[in-house]
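Blackboard transcription, Thursday session:
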Amino acid sequence: MRLELLKALNDERAARRPAVLVTELANGEQRLVKGADIAADPLAEILDTALRAGKSRGVEHEGKNLFLTVQAPPVRIFCIGAVHISQAMAPMTALAGFDLTIIDPRTAFATPERFPNVALLAEWPQDVVPKLGLDQYTAMCLLTHDPKIDDPALLAALKADCFYIGALGSRKTHAKRLERMRAEGIGDNALSRIHAPIGLDIGSVTPAEIAVSILGEIIAALRKKPLRAEKAA
Amino acid sequence: MIASDDDILSTAVDWKAQGRKVAIATVVETWGSAPRPVGSHLVIDGEGNFVGSVSGGCVEGAVVAEASDVLADGKPRSIEFGVADETAWRVGLSCGGRIRVYVEAVN
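(Written on the board underneath:)
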């Protein structure tokens, strides 16, 4: 492997950008395909599938044995609201291997007693979210129902093109939310990406069941369809 | 701390920056129960120091030896380990699986 190629691969990883290193096993020829360039690549479909699965693998293409070293940034989930549903989300996301952070400025909610072993930020989303580096491998769950707390995070998530954005609340609550977002200049295309009411429709009743439906929806958004960046590219 | 395969690739660049010869071994195929998944890396220097893993420690020694050949002639190669291989008498996988490892020099 050329050193420049290895460095480029490491740089993409450090920047949380997806990339695939393609190696022809017979002769050692290699090239790096950055996430943004995948759609235009001759191997677009194969690379896209491998990247979505997030796993390195060998493939046969036009009689050549290729190995794909896949680098997909680890998925992060942010929950706005240190609420009952987030308490259930914490152990579930840990089991599923996702990195969870809970944000809630209300210190009565955001206590370590309620959230042992979870990254917890007792701060206003407008103060802390800009520092988090939201990107296309980030999921954002809005769980407070309170526009003061939810909206700044929602705006940031829409602008950062997070692969999943879900918002708790009735259809009526959501209609008002959409009005507020339009007033902020967000277009209908972007607004249609918000999953609301949040979670898969599995008839969830308890907070834990709702957490299951949210996690299922996040996984479906991650694995089932191309990530936004890959589609747009 | 070497926490993931990604950190291991960073080590390869660090070692190279120190003027060491560096080879990278990658698990490119597995059959049956293999200890490390496809895509796992082992980074080896010219002195036989290594970080990472391609198995549970069963075949690393052989991969390190192969790496010194790769570093000598610069040619990448694939090697297969497992119970079905005649080398199983020397280095095999006690889990009964088989793996193919691709070894290349960083240059």
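Lecturer's comment: The interface with chain A takes residues 6, 9-10, 12-13, 16, 24, 26, 28-29, 37-39, 75-76, 78, 102, 104-107 of chain B (CB under 8 Å).
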